[in-house]
Design brief:
Order of helices and strands of chain A: HEEEEEEEEEE
Largest sheet of chain A: 5 strands, mixed
Order of helices and strands of chain B: HHHHHHHHHHHHHHHHHH
Helix content of chain A: 10-25%
Number of helices of chain B: 18
Helix content of chain B: over 70%
Oligomer: heterodimer
Structural class of chain B: mainly alpha
Number of strands of chain B: 0
Number of strands of chain A: 10
Shape of chain A: elongated
Largest interface: A-B, 66 and 76 residues
Structural class of chain A: alpha+beta
Strand content of chain A: 25-35%
Radius of gyration of chain B: 23 Å
Number of helices of chain A: 1
Distance between the termini of chain A: 64 Å
Strand content of chain B: under 5%
Chain lengths: 155, 541
Amino acid sequence: MQVELYERIWMWAAGGIIVLFLGAIALGAALQAIAPPGHLETVDPTALAEHAEFASPAVTTRDDGTIVVPVVASMFAFSPDPIEVPANRPVTFRVTSADVMHGFQVVGTNANVMAVPGYVTRFTVTFPRPGEYLIACHEYCGILHHNMVGKLVVK
Amino acid sequence: VKEEMTGRHTLAATHIAVAITAFGVASAMGALQALSIADVQFPLRSESFYYLAVTAHGVLMALVFTTFFIMGLGYVFSQETLGRIAGRGAAWGAFWLAAAGSVMAAVTILRGQSTVLYTFYPPLQAHPLFYIGATLLVVASWIWGGVMIASYRSWRREHPGVPVPLAIHGMLATIIIWYLATAGLAVEVVGMLIPWSLGLVDTIDPLLARTFFWWFGHPLVYFWLLPAYVLWYYVLPQVAGGRLFSDGLARMVFILFVLLSTPVGFHHQFADPGISSGWKLIHTVTTYAVLYPSLVTAFTVIASLEVAGRMKGAKGLFDWIERLPWADPFFASVALAMIAFAFGGFGGAINAAYAMNAMVHNTAWIQGHFHVTLGTTVALSFMGATYWLLPRLIGRDLRLVPLARIQPYLWFGGMTLFSTSYHIAGLRGMPRRVYSGLLAGEHGASWQSLTVVAAVGGTILFLSALAFLIVVVATWTAGRRIPPPAFEFATALRPPAAAGLWDRFGLWTVVAILLVALAYVYPLVTLLTHPRYGSPRFQPF
């Protein structure tokens, strides 16, 4: 197959662009531990009311100083609401759903995951700026989906 | 002779008529959604109507319009380049099956029984006929693929060693991708959703279903895109008056899509639990790899257009651009579709970026993104193709040509307003698919004005769709009867001498299956062997 010179140059350039993009992602993942949620933990969505952590979810500080926020998304609210966390400290969220699929997005931050019934989505975020943030459900969850909002207070 | 000429394409023309009907209904639904998001009041406006309209718009545009159009286009290429459609009876059977399935699903949607959006994530549960109707549509498309493959094989027996016509090369690649993709969908819908919706099983695993959905959901994009690429490679250079710059690279591109389209689905699940970050990273690599054939396509198609401009006497660096037939409705549609895809591709690279995805996941950015890709790159290519096809299929002159000339520009302008606004609103955090941009009331301050611009764009898009429909209906019912113009396809600067490595579909299909297995078996086994809890059904609509 004959390939013209300019075409050949473009093909190498296109390959180079892709390697560059992937390199940037790999560096961030390896050096700054930037990664999406990735752990597998299940929970019975029909029994959250009896669950030790999710029955009445509340922000807790564990013995080692880590801050853990269990969150239950359900039609059409988040619990707890509001959520209060300190600024500039890593906060680990553990999000699940009591009914259908929901989204959990803290608008203006990198906290943005799915709430899947039967599973726990775990991720850690540090909020550098104190203030009040909107939490929005971003996955269609029924007729009042757009009303499903919550509040995060960073102190 | 005339009757025979037009009668040969009745099958294709009927498919395209159904596709355009679905497109028309879906367009109206789309415009109303854009108004609702911007909090513009209109008589029909309600929460239940909005989410019903999102479902109808998605299903009719993404599944019905595209599938029928692609099936029709496939038959055109099979008839015109292979000189046959092997199994017309089966093809008509598939048409009626697809039509019945689409009507079944559409009726349950319009009656408000299946407001689950076109992603239908469980444990939201639709009416059983929604899933069964969708299944019939997909089974019909499998039969279409079988007819196309049988036509190719019959031609191949008579033409050993000859390179397959490029259009059929692209359509066969589309069909292989479609079989690979819909295997995942079949597991989800037939294996999980239908038994659950019929009450045969009580619960469903939402994450497992979603994983099979995205096994299907991303290659679905290439099922739409590749037939558009066939038009770009095989028809556009001819309409522009040029030559296809490289036939060999076009074939390489189609095979790379066969290999890389499917093992990429986790880039839609970055925000999900249950799938390890490592596997998400692997799917990121394959997702970026699938950018490559599109980058090569950009070069080949633009070079083909430069050849066209130079054949018309252009001498300078850029004056070939103005020699191109910008007033031809087909050319204008496809050229604008390609410009849109340049932006869509950049956006896609951001969506696929493992960590950056968290900024845009499920925000209005996403609806902005797929309206420049599917909603312009594919839809505008198909609208342009309709202008080119109609006289050739039904033997009637195109009516209202001035309207057809303006229509693609109107679409592009409307989409620029619509899509750009939602991209920016998404970056500011506006969630996608919301009845009101204000959410629960007072939350839209940073994006409210953008939703209004998007509503203006959506209205312009609807006017453009209306212009397209008027031209099609006028041509079909009142176009002057003419001897159908010949189908003329692009010839390559250097036509291939013999069928080469890129024509070995069996080999590439095996490699593609292996890649899908590598990408999915381990994470699926991990998920399946972990203790999991099912979800009961919910119908909050």
